[in-house]
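Risk register update: the risk of archive-format incompatibility is retired. Evidence:
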Amino acid sequence: MEIPKLIDVDAHVVEPPTLWSSRLPERLRESGPRIVYAPKGDVQLVDGKYVERPGTEGPDVAWWAYEDTWTQIKRYVAAAGVPADEVTNEGVTYEDMRPGCWIPSERIADMEVNGVEAQMCFPNYPRFCGQIFLWGKDRELALHSVQAYNDWMVEEWCGSSGGRLIPLCLIPLWDVDLAVAELRRNAARGVRAVAFSELPAYLGLPSLHSRYWDPFFAACEETGTVLSMHIGSGTRTPQTSADAPGAVGATIIFGNSVASMTDFLFSGVLHRFPRLKLLYAEAQIGWVPYLLERVDDVWETHRGWAKGQDQCPEPPSTYYYRQITSCFFKDHVGVELLDRVGLDNATFETDYPHQDGTWPRSREAAAEQFGHLDEEAVRKIARGNAIRLLGLDLPV
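Archived output:
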């Protein structure tokens, strides 16, 4: 059947240059996130973090400067409409990218071209769960920066879209009480999704097993806020060796989502908060059936020593089917295993404007992968499951 208009649960926004400089208190603007034009520089991976500095010659590109950190806006995060051979990790300017990357009205125009009715966008510069502010030295500045991003997200990015852009907010990751307060502040104005790290321990934060995050999870459950975790939001990505090409890490990065889901299933979080909903973004779905088979087998077979049943009194797959949704955009294998992934547990995405994205042919990509399914299945994956998960006022 023809693919209906999509509800896209994972796209990205390139933050506009004045987002923070127009919203932070004046005394904080000189050290808060701001755009500086300077020559391209080198990027190095140091202790799991990318460290960048501007160069000394060549054409200027757009840099985000925040305290003593520098980050180029790179071509591959603003790659919509750019031929694959021309997509690199070098810096660009705002003039080099499609206006839909950062201007709301232009984004909606690009959504129209792509057959997307509504779209939820993860951040780019602050990283996928706002961890750049976790690394900030000035906690007052970091908190104001998180709040400024959320105000911009609700009021400017989504505010004039007529519900077509779905707000996704950040939390101050360094303090669970502040996180709860910010979650509630945004939920009170209609926000129903919050970005979180798939592996908080990778960020040096308390693990899911510590129960430190329980007040935050309780607030998510109470407000109906979906805990949204983008692949790579643990920052540290799987690597096989220092000399392996980037293609290796890009292939196996879904391993982080495997680890995260296993952590959630055995931690007892989903047992203690049975109405808490999780969304895994850009992780694809083909790996899910084997993980569910394995966690259930470990839960049963190794019950004498592995402590899998201590916080997880039911087979782990029970919690998955009840509370977890994943999204995909390139996964024929996952569609073939859809009966085990769960028809109600799968949603679609476009990843606009990243290089991996399918714009402007996302509905064609959807048709190629699941257009052969029956009408109910197509509608659930393309839009129905996302509408239900996020409580959207849209027809299924």
